[in-house]
Specification:
Elements lengths: L19 H17 L7 H51 L6 E10 L5 E12 L3 E5 L2 E5 L5 E5 L2 E5 L4 E12 L4 E10 L4 E4 L3 E5 L2 E5 L1 E5 L4 E5 L2 E6 L8 E6 L2
Antiparallel strand pairs: 1-2, 2-3, 2-4, 3-6, 4-5, 5-7, 6-7, 7-8, 8-9, 8-10, 9-12, 10-11, 11-14, 12-13, 14-15
Length: about 250
């Protein structure tokens, strides 16, 4: 059995190639050109610039690393502040201002005695630069001696510059000494701390009960007067708290 001749070319070694002398000549010429090329030494200005860059890198890289580490350590606090801002934005979004209307409005001020008062309302409507119409207004007033009064109604008109508040429909006034008064209307001079009404009023408190055609209250002077004819039932200071004496008030 004889082997058939193969058509594949026989491998050749490159180091025995016919053109090897030519390639070696090219390499030798390139080497000579490289040796003949003159290398220029860097100038003093270039060396100084490189030194400056190195010095800057020595300070900049550690500083950048410290900034990154500090940001990683402070990220929980930053995230907390971001969440707080988002919550504040959501709360502000609840206050819708449309054509002078506002929801959950709050007004604060000081009276003539530098006591705080605050007015809140479920909805408000601004009419001009001064008048504000209120729905479900509530007024919290600080009085002398760290006492306070709380007044609410169904409707109201707040005059910002005059610091007056006119309340209508189901006016309820409560003072921290236990005095509770109900009536259809009341006018408040917030600057002077005065509450007055010309409509009927029913009052209850430590003194007893009172039904009258109106009243005048000076919050800071501690003065409460009922006007017009009415009926007074006062608690008997010398008997049981349940006993009372009825008296007809003079007009």
């Amino acid at each position: 059995m004889t082997d058939s001749p193969s058509n594949d070319p026989k491998p050749r070694r490159e180091d025995f190639a016919s053109n090897r002398s030519e390639s070696l000549a090219k390499l030798d010429s390139l080497r000579r050109l490289a040796f003949q090329k003159k290398r220029v030494a860097p100038s003093a200005e270039l060396i100084a610039r490189r030194r400056s860059l190195l010095a800057l890198a020595k300070w900049a890289l550690p500083s950048l690393a410290l900034v990154l580490l500090a940001s990683i350590a402070a990220w929980p606090e930053i995230s907390h502040l971001i969440n707080q801002n988002r919550a504040a934005l959501r709360e502000m979004a609840r206050l819708r201002v449309e054509s002078g209307n506002m929801e959950n409005a709050v007004y604060r001020g000081l009276d003539a005695h530098n006591h705080l008062y605050m007015i809140t309302a479920r909805t408000t409507h601004q009419e001009g630069p001064d008048r504000v119409n209120l729905v479900d207004p509530v007024a919290d007033i600080q009085l002398s001696g760290n006492s306070w009064a709380h007044i609410k109604a169904d409707r109201g008109v707040y005059m910002q510059h005059e610091q007056t508040l006119d309340l209508d429909d189901h006016v309820v006034l409560y003072r921290d000494d236990g005095t509770l008064m109900n009536g259809p209307s009341a006018d408040l001079d917030l600057k002077q701390g005065v509450v007055a009404s010309r409509d009927w009023v029913h009052a209850e408190g430590p003194f007893g009960t009172e039904d009258a055609q109106g009243y005048f209250m000076d919050q800071h002077a501690g003065l409460l007067e009922f006007t017009g004819p009415g009926q007074t039932v006062r608690n008997d200071d010398f008997g049981p708290a349940a006993s009372s004496v009825a008296a007809q008030k003079r007009p």
